[in-house]
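re: that complex we talked abt at group meeting.

here r the seqs, copy pasted straight from the sheet so there may be weird spacing, ignore it
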Amino acid sequence: MNSVRTILSNLFQAIARVRSAAADGLASLAERDRSASRRRALRIITNRYVLASLALVLVGMGAAAPFLVRITSTPGFCGSCHVMDDQYEHWFYDGKHRMISCVDCHLPNNNIVNHLVWKGIDGMKDVFFFYTRLTPEIIRASSHARRTIRANCVRCHDEMVSRVSIDTMQCWDCHRARNHQVVAQ
Amino acid sequence: MTKRTIAVCVICGVFGVTGVVLLANGCAPSRPELVKVASIPDGEYDPAEWGKAYPLEYESWAKTKEPRPTGKSKYKPGLDTDKIVYDKLSEFPFMALLFHGWGFGVEYNEPQGHWYMRIDQDIIDQSRTKAGGVCLNCKSPYMDALVKEHGPGFYSMPWQEAVAKIPAKHKDLGAACIDCHDNRTMDLKINRAAFSKGLAKLGKKEFTRQEMRTLVCAQCHVTYNVPKDQNMKSLGVDHPYDGSTWGTITIENIIAVIKRTPAYKEWTQAVTGLKVGFLRHPEFEFFTRASVHWNAGLSCADCHMPYQKAGANKISNHNLMSPLKDDLRACVKCHPQGAERLKRQVIETQDRTVSLLLRAGYGTATAAKLIELANAAPRQGKTVDQGLYAQAVDFYLEALYRVIFIGAENSLGFHNPMEAGRILGDAIAFSAKSEALLRQLLAAAGVTVPANIMLDLTKYINNRGTHRKNFRKEFEFADPFGIQERILPRAARGI
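got the structure back, here u go
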């Protein structure tokens, strides 16, 4: 407990030094007017209660992150926007890929950073298009999306296609039941 | 903000961004690489050697030896489990009349596939191999090497002599791995100089891998002409692509090339006495002329070499055959309606093509008999209007070449149903107009001509060649819609 108090008091002392140094550094110049608002901003930012709340929020987000990532990766979540109904229903009745979720095909899965970065980008793009009602009637994958999906096909089916050339056509040009359009019989 | 602070921020920023970028692009498991268990030496023709490195594909290729299930293809039997060799002249009796005068009118059978393509050349009536060494162009993978070794004289070398020049071990080798693949990378490549020359006429130099999946088949599944010199010796293999472009090789251009090139008049049609050219299995030209599947981006291999599971992997099916004999496995992936329904649709297309082919074929045969009559008229002291005659012969040739084109094409119209209908429609128009002109000039010359011209098919279709082949009624394809018998009664056919 004592070491924690020492650390905290050292921290607050350092903050106080930054504050006074800022005040001294600016006093000599004609920036006295602008420096007033700067000093106020600095005082707010370095206020101990503000810092504490910020720290609490960051810790909270860090703790909640896995849970948030998990619940936003379910097909139910993707399907909660009504414009996704067609795609969701098709996935729901699709025998072979019913066990995997939307993000297993539509987000990069080569490493976690890539996955989370594109999760954020794609998610916010969807939010934007949905709430501005700019969603097209027929939703088509962008060229980056097509590259991502194809890489995911290969990720799972790699050995299966290791003896054939996969550059001549897109997987779903023949395997039509996979692109949310045709029901296999 | 001191300089030190700025420096610290910049450095942290650079590290941060680099870290994210590296993490984002790295850390992925590498793609499993195929383990090469053997390497194929350059210039290796033996498929068994290639099979050491690629056993799955080799095994699949070797299956071309086996007969296919009987009864699955209505119009293209051949190498089926019934072990029958189907006589094409009995299937389409008008061909016996039209081709009377050279090998095709003696013996013309349904093909038996890649395994037997070289072997069947030795079995068939040898009037088919009179052209000499040039006949090996689409049959032996050694062709280019043999021409290089023996010079252009190889093309006109007598048949037996030319075959003896193939290395004995591979004398009967048909389509082999080296014909399509580069031995080091398995990339697709062309192994026929004659076809490369023809391809250059189309004005396209670079080809994607998907286009190569059509072109390796097109090395042989194309129409060609064998130019002959004054002594009727074969000079090589030419493709009549002058004036055509990639995706638009038209029958009109092909006929124009044949008509204006005297060297391409390879034989004399006995019935009409005309020196005419010929057209052979034009699958490439026919399919690539804006057919539905070509426009959808498909290649020959997509339908005829579909991917199949071989253990844990997929390979292209190297056991080439009609998709009908494979239960339309290649089709149902994109057309999920089921094999039965698709097969009915294929047969509907082929039925209609056959119906029109019979109309065009018998119409052209009728015109041929009238030309024969017109040729005989001067011997009876009757003069024939030469202007009308020339026009009638011109139209007759337009019809004849179209009939040969569709007759030789191996899909009975399925590769391009609309184009088949168009070409046969034109053939019927040309032959009908030719017949009309001939009737007119014969009437003017005072020759009486019956309403139904007697074709005398027994003369042309029976007792053919060394094998004494005769008309086999059970092989004949009747008009599925019954129209042909109304245009030309069976009695007029003579069989």
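couple things i noticed - Chain B touches chain A through 33 residues (CB under 8 Å). Strands of chain B lie at 267-268, 275-276, 307-310, 313-316.
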